[in-house]
Every structure is written in structure tokens, then in C-alpha cells.
Design brief:
The chain is of the alpha/beta class and 431 residues long. It has 17 helices and 10 strands. The protein has a 6-stranded parallel sheet. It has a 4-stranded antiparallel sheet with strand order 2-3-1-4, with helices on both faces. Helix 11 (229-239) links the parallel strand 6 and strand 7. Helix 14 (312-356) crosses helix 17. The model is unreliable at 1-7 and 419-431 (pLDDT under 50).
Length: 431
């Protein structure tokens, strides 16, 4: 039975690029604006060698995914061709490098992946509800562009239903489990104004996440310093703000209320001498959140009177507590997803039967019309009006019943054939 079920889903494929194997600022280069999306998706459908029957495109701050149904096996060759077709502005070298970061999910693995994505079990921050809305919008775009059809409709209906169940029946969204998210939560507790000047030292992955959460929280006054100015500029473009080279840090002219620091330096970046040039009049303490290992902030600065210092060790302790809590909830979510996958197999089987019988009503109607207009036309001509009307009503009644009976029988057979259920006699009674 298991191998039969897998065949029912083998057409579902997901091609994914995520933050787990692709640097965030580089991931942004894969994002396609909505006004271009329709043409690019139709280009994929028209590429016969890909064999794509339905497709939609999901783009979030930390993932780009193609959700597809295919008429043939989808492997590395098809992945390369898809990228060439969709990203025709990229060079062959760029496309080749890009393909190395692709993660391909097929069949039941693809379905489980979508379910996990929909309830943020596969996100940077587990429990972040925004991904459900983004996934739904991506599908609705495909619907509007006419690049999706019946199978992905079924998939998405079950996907959104599963996400709602996970968020309703578990507490997966209650406590943050990334250092970046906890750090920003800590800052929010200080109730700074949205225009409070925030200085970000380092433009790697951690501070990119910090910037994302800060922007989402409504903060908008950023200055980014990094050893490589180009990376600082990428982050500045991503969240808004000004970019500077790290060696200019001591020359920062604006007042500083908040500092996030995370560099790969083996020595403190925020030394006492740099701090003397950075600090203001001391009327308000500066909150410094140090996410680096080893610490970016010198010990004497950590204990300065005009500093509220938060170390990564403190944040990790809170993350660990939250992680233990969420791991218990993840087990509950996994059970919900397993049940949802099993339920989809039955939904898909029943839908396949419905599609197979979709022409049956037309065939029955044609038989009725032929009986009335050809086979028994002479006999019917000899009937009075009342009798003829009765015959027509009887034939219409028989037409409806003949259409519904096979569908009911097929559904009952499928239900009685589910694993764990014994065979039952099927009876269809007239009503």
C-alpha cells in the first residue's frame, strides 16, 4: 500500500533555495518582481523538456522555492534547465554555481516539506506565522497567472489546513529560539522610539538577521560598519541605512543609543578608546548587544557606567530554555503533519476517482437524449401530454441517480479500503 501511495504523489516537486545553505544577501538576487513573474512562470510551462504541468513561486526573506507538478522525472538536468529559463539574465557560471545550492524535494518528501514550511518548522525562526500568509499569496499569484490547476489546489488546501492545526493545537509560536530574534526582543523591552539611532557592527549572517527583525519591528535609523564596505552596503540596501568601513567607526558623528556587534575579529572591536569617541553626553545609557564569540566589546566598556551590556552568553541561555520548550511542541507538530500527509493521500485518491468519472454525467445525458429522441421517439409521439411529461420526469430522475451511484460506490470502496479498515459491503439505496 505504501508504494502505491507514493506513486500518487510522485508528480509533486519542490526546488528550494534557503538561508540554511545560501547566504541571505545572495539569496536576494534570486527574487523576481511580481510584474515579471507571470512571463517567467509561463516560460517554465512552455519548456517541454521540463515537463512542468503546474507551478508557483515562493519568495520570502530567507527562501526562494518553486512548487511544481511534473509529468516526468525531475533531476539535476531539469534543475539546471529551470534555472536557465527562469533566470535568463544570469551567466552560465552564475547558473552553475546557483545549481549547487539547490535542494530538491520529490513526492511525499515534497508534501512534508511544504507542510513544515507552512507552519514555520523549517524557518529561521520556528513559529513565525508570516510564512503561512506568504505561501498562500504565492499560490494565489500562480492561480491568477493561470500556472496552477487542480492538483496544487488540493495540495495548498491541505497545506494551509495543516498550518492552522499546528498553530492552534501547539504552542510552537510562543517563544523565539534564534539569538538574533531574542536579541531584538530584548531591545524592544527598552521601548526605544522607532527613530532611535542604531549602530550595527558587522554585516555577516547574524547581523543580517538582526537587521531583518529590527526592520520588521519598525526601527529605521541604521548605520552599518563592516570590514568590507561592499558587504555593509548590501546590508544597508537590505534594511535601509548608511554603510561605512569598519576603520571609520571611531569617527561616527551621530549619537548612539543602541549597538549590535557581531564580527569575526579575535580582538575587541569596541575598545575603550573607540568607545570614548562614540559615546554621547552620558545623559542616557547606550544598550550594547554583543553577539560575537569572542566578545567584540572590551571588558572595561562592558562595565562602563553609561552602558547597558547584553552578552551572547546571556542570550544563549534564554534561547536554550525556549528551545527546550519548542522541542516539546515540535513533537506535537510532527504528529499533526504525519496525519495530514496520510489524509492527503485519501483526498488525492478520491479526487482521482472524481476526475476519472468527470465525463460520466455527459455520457448518461447523451444516452437519455438518444433514448428520447431516437430509440423511442415513435412510441413517445403517441403519448398524451400528461403521460409524456411523466416519462420525461422519470428519465430525468433516472439520469441523476445513474450519475450519482457510481461516484458514491467508488468513494465507499476507497473509504473501506483505507489501512486499518476492513472490507464492508457497499449498498446504494434510492432516495
Amino acid at each position: 500500500m505504501h508504494h502505491i501511495k507514493r506513486r500518487l504523489l510522485e508528480k509533486l516537486t519542490v526546488l528550494a533555495f534557503t538561508h540554511k545553505n545560501f547566504y541571505l544577501t545572495e539569496l536576494g538576487k534570486l527574487v523576481v518582481e511580481r510584474q515579471q513573474l507571470k512571463d517567467r512562470l509561463h516560460a517554465l510551462l512552455s519548456q517541454a523538456e521540463l515537463g512542468i504541468e503546474e507551478v508557483f513561486y515562493l519568495s520570502t526573506c530567507n527562501r526562494v522555492e518553486f512548487v511544481m507538478t511534473t509529468s516526468q522525472a525531475f533531476g539535476s538536468g531539469q534543475t539546471q534547465l529551470l534555472l536557465e529559463t527562469f533566470y535568463d539574465q544570469f551567466s552560465p557560471t552564475q547558473l552553475s554555481n546557483l545549481a549547487q545550492f539547490a535542494k530538491l524535494y520529490k513526492g511525499q518528501d515534497a508534501l512534508e516539506h511544504l507542510f513544515r514550511v507552512s507552519c514555520s518548522m523549517d524557518s529561521m525562526v520556528i513559529g513565525e506565522r508570516e510564512i503561512t500568509r506568504q505561501l498562500r499569496q504565492a499560490y494565489e499569484d500562480g492561480l491568477e497567472f493561470e500556472t496552477t490547476a487542480d492538483f496544487l489546489r488540493l495540495v495548498m488546501k491541505q497545506t494551509i489546513k495543516t498550518a492552522k492545526e499546528v498553530y492552534t493545537e501547539t504552542r510552537i509560536a510562543e517563544k523565539p529560539i534564534s539569538v538574533a530574534s531574542v536579541a531584538v526582543r530584548k531591545l524592544i523591552d527598552y521601548n526605544f522610539d522607532e527613530d532611535a539611532p542604531i549602530l550595527i557592527i558587522g554585516a555577516g549572517e547574524t547581523n543580517t538577521l538582526v537587521g531583518k527583525y529590527l526592520k520588521k519591528a519598525g526601527y529605521r535609523n541604521f548605520s552599518i560598519y563592516n570590514r568590507t564596505l561592499e558587504k555593509a552596503q548590501l546590508l544597508a540596501n537590505y534594511i535601509g541605512g548608511q554603510a561605512y568601513a569598519l576603520d571609520q567607526l571611531g569617527q561616527h558623528a551621530q549619537p548612539v543609543r543602541v549597538i549590535f556587534s557581531c564580527t569575526s575579529s579575535t580582538e575587541p572591536v569596541l575598545t575603550s578608546s573607540v568607545w570614548e569617541m562614540l559615546k554621547g553626553d552620558g545623559a542616557f545609557p547606550t544598550v550594547i548587544i554583543d553577539l560575537a564569540v569572542p566578545n567584540d566589546v572590551a571588558v572595561d566598556v562592558q562595565h562602563a557606567q553609561d552602558v547597558e551590556y547584553i552578552s551572547i552568553d546571556h542570550l544563549k541561555h534564554e534561547v536554550e530554555k525556549n528551545l527546550q520548550f519548542r522541542e516539546q511542541e515540535l513533537e506535537k507538530a510532527d504528529l499533526i503533519i504525519s496525519k495530514a500527509v496520510a489524509a492527503f493521500h485519501e483526498i488525492n485518491r478520491i479526487r482521482n476517482v472524481e476526475k476519472a468519472l468527470s465525463s460520466f454525467p455527459t455520457q448518461v445525458k447523451e444516452i437519455k437524449n438518444k433514448a428520447m429522441q431516437e430509440v423511442f421517439s415513435k412510441e413517445l409521439q403517441g403519448l398524451d401530454a400528461a403521460t409524456l411529461a411523466l416519462v420525461e420526469r422519470m428519465m430525468s430522475y433516472m439520469e441523476k441517480k445513474c450519475i450519482s451511484v457510481p461516484i458514491v460506490i467508488a468513494k465507499n470502496i476507497l473509504i473501506s479500503d483505507e489501512p486499518g479498515k476492513g472490507k464492508k459491503p457497499v449498498a446504494v439505496l434510492p432516495s
